[in-house]
Amino acid sequence: MEIDPLIFRLSIFILSIFVGYYVVWSVTPSLHTPLMSVTNAISSVIIVGAIIAGLSGNSESIFNTSSIFGFFAIALAAINIFGGFLVTQRMLAMYKKKKKDK
Amino acid sequence: MLSANLSAIFYLISGVLFILALRGLSSPETSRQGNLFGILGMIIAVTVTFLSIGNFSTGFIFVLIFILLGGSIGAFIAYRIPMTAMPELVAGFHSLVGLAAVFVAISAFLNPEAFNLGTKGNIKLGSLIEMSIGAAVGAITFSGSIIAFLKLQGIMSGSPIVFKGQHPLNALILISIVILIYMLCASQSSNLFWILLAVSFLIGFLLIIPIGGADMPVVISMLNSYSGWAAAGIGFTLENTALIITGALVGSSGAILSYIMCKGMNRSFFNVILGGFGATDSSSSSSNKEQRPVKSGNADDAAFLMKNASSVIIVPGYGMAVAQAQHALREMVDTLKKNDIKVSYAIHPVAGRMPGHMNVLLAEANVPYDEVFELEEINNDFANADVAFVIGANDVTNPVAKTDPQSPIFGMPVLDVEKCKSVLFVKRSLSPGYAGIDNDLFYKENTLMLFADAKKMTEDITKNL
């Protein structure tokens, strides 16, 4: 009997939760704010679904209700991707070590 | 056109890069590289999606236009946002992830052929379940984050909004969501789909309104988690590994942060979610409010105390963010250091309005991160320090949490500020903090209250040093 592909996806999902658990516990508390902004940015990989939705129109009309929702989702996710990564970059650039000079 | 197997491998790679992006955050040195991994993962995911669709017609141009449109808005916000507004920004971003998930789900529901999910009115059962869960969680994330945003921005009052029958109503709505998903899967009716979305938006709104301002760290972390689960739900629908991995990562990340925040307040998650902390306890504290003597001083006294100290610990809180006092504070510390006074910073886990809020503000003011310590790292040092300078923090320094089992904050880990030889407490008035209880620290023999705006007081002290 063949295994349903869903089970494989479920396995990836469950294992990723564990990976996430250990990786996030090792994040230093002082970087919790950048952690939130970067998770924000990466969860916007949902743009992948938005692009499929946006391109779902046929050759006669690119715009149908479904693809319009897709285009909006693309814009929303793009705000998050650019905003999230850039603001994280901006924050991380501020974390500096003590200067050695005395 | 990219084969399905090859693109699946690329999605896996981008998922791994996202894991590395989070891994990088284990120390500030590796964090910047981690962020680049994240960006690379995103570029791979988007490119692979384009290649696997392989349709570079007019639609493609529109996709690019919308990416550029959103991207420039995002970039503009990222560069302009002041660091003190970070909690609002993150809440706002969460709402966008939620809404994007809802839109993708709607799109997939209306045009399942494009996603390979069957035909309209006859969507594969598994996909429909995943899709409706993703949409419902996305909708809750959206409306919940909007409320969190409005509260943080001050457009909506930060005090909890509670009404009779609130919890039964919420429970009823949550149960109805489950029933709606079940009915939707049985009937494939689009009306039920819209009702499900509407009800989910409603519950997101209702869940967040009873939660007060200082509990926002938990709320933001929780919504962070939700946005991850929503993404994962959509990931299952689209059979996309990158999305599933990311959703799981973000979901567990937010859950861990919520747990850390709850532990920082010694409250259970449900206690926070059910809300109304300040509202229920204010009565008990007002009854025993007798007038107790307080020593108050001015900038000159404070400067004198600090000048004669050999070590100073600074305890910042949300008040510092409100007063934008972080730069003035760092200038004061620079002057202290010139006088060979050892200075360190003590950060309570729930200081501020989001996890790590104080650390970012201090980093912005050029405070080196190795001078900033977490509660467990520094709590023993208070006994050996000469001066504790409390600026904008309150409940997290309240010794009552250790001594009075009747107190609503009893058991909460607090900074042992009172063990210092002297305590300087910058505050505008004697009003109680968020928990609605009096701070015993105000009345201690070794406490000097500095009644002023945090920024102004810090500047005045620097002048007097």
Architecture overview:
- The complex is a heterodimer of chains A (102) and B (465).
- The relative contact order of chain A is 0.12.
- The N and C termini of chain A lie far apart (72 Å).
- Chain A has four helices and no strands.
- The model of chain A has no long low-confidence stretch (mean pLDDT 88).
- The radius of gyration of chain A is 20 Å and the shape is flat.
- Chain A has helices spanning 5-25, 32-43, 47-54, 65-94.
- With 465 residues, chain B is an alpha/beta fold.
- Chain B contains 18 helices and eight strands.
- The radius of gyration of chain B is 25 Å and the shape is elongated.
- The model of chain B is unreliable at 278-288 (pLDDT under 50).
- Chains A and B meet through helix 1, helix 2, helix 3 and helix 4 of A and helix 1, helix 2, helix 3, helix 4 and helix 8 of B.
Number of separate helices of chain B: 18
Our Rg estimate of chain A from Cα atoms comes to 20 Å
How many helical elements of chain A?
Answer: 4
For the largest beta-sheet of chain B, the strand count, sense and barrel status come to:
6 strands, parallel
- Residue stretches of chain B low in confidence (pLDDT < 50, at least 5 long) are 278-288
Count the strands of chain B? 8
> Outline of chain A, from the CA principal axes?
flat
Helix content of chain B: 55-70%
Beta-strand content estimate of chain A: under 5%
* Helix-strand makeup class of chain B: alpha/beta
In whole angstroms, the N-to-C terminal distance of chain B is 70 Å
Q: What are the low-pLDDT stretches of chain A, counting only 5+ consecutive residues below 50? A: none
Portion of residues in beta strands of chain B equals 5-15%
Q: Which two protein chains have the largest interface (Cβ within 8 Å of the partner's Cβ), and how many residues from each? A: A-B, 83 and 116 residues
Q: Mean pLDDT of chain A, nearest integer? A: 88
Mean of all residue-level pLDDT scores of chain B:
87
Structural class of chain A: mainly alpha
Let me know the largest β-sheet of chain A.
none
Neighbour order of strands in the largest sheet of chain B: 5-4-3-6-7-8
